[in-house]
Amino acid sequence: VVEEGETVEILTRRPDWYEVKSKNGNVGWARASALARTLEPTGDPVDLPSVSYGDYLKNSWRVGFTMGQYVKGELDGSDNFSVTGGYRPLSWLGVEVEWGKTYSAEVSGDYYGANLLLEPLSRWRVSPYVLVGIGRMSVDAQPKLVPLGIDESSYNAFGFGGSCYLVRNFVLRGESRWYEVSADPNDVDLQEWKIGFSAFF
Question: Measured between alpha carbons, how far is 158 from 189 in angstroms, rounded to an integer?
Fold first, then answer.
C-alpha cells in the first residue's frame, strides 16, 4: 500500500508489471495499468514505456462542453454551444449524448443527438478522431415571417477532429462537423466548427 502523494521508484519492468520501491523501502510488484494512474510532480501522467493515454481512457465516463459557429447553410453565422455526456467502453471507441442551443439575431433553436466517436490513435497525446451521429433539431426564425427550411427535423452528422490530452483527465477538443437535415421540400446541408473540452472520471 502506498499513500496518496508518496513517491515510488521503478526498479524492474516485466510485461504489464513493474517492480517498485516505496519511500520507506518496501518493494513489491504493481500492474502497469495501476501505475499509469500515478502522476508526475507537474500533474502529467507518468511516462511508462508500455502505458499511454489510451490505457487510462478505457472504461471511462466523460462530460464535456463545446462552443462554435455554423459556417455553411441556412444557419450560417449562427453560434452554438452544447453539453455532452458519454462513455468509452474501449480506448479507441466512445459513445456520447449531446444537447445544444443555436442562436443569433435571426434564429434560435435546440438540438439533441447521439454520437459515436472512433479514435484509433488514442495512445497519442494529440489524437485525431472521426464522429458519426444522429439527432433532431428545432429552429425558429426571428421574426416568424422569415421562412426557414429547418423547423422540427432529424439529422445525420459526420465530423472529424482532434483531441489534445492536457493532463490525465482533461482533454481539449477541436472539431469540424457536417449535417444533413431532413427538410421539406429538400434536405438542408449545414457545416459547423466547434472547440471545447471533456473531463474523464
Answer: 11
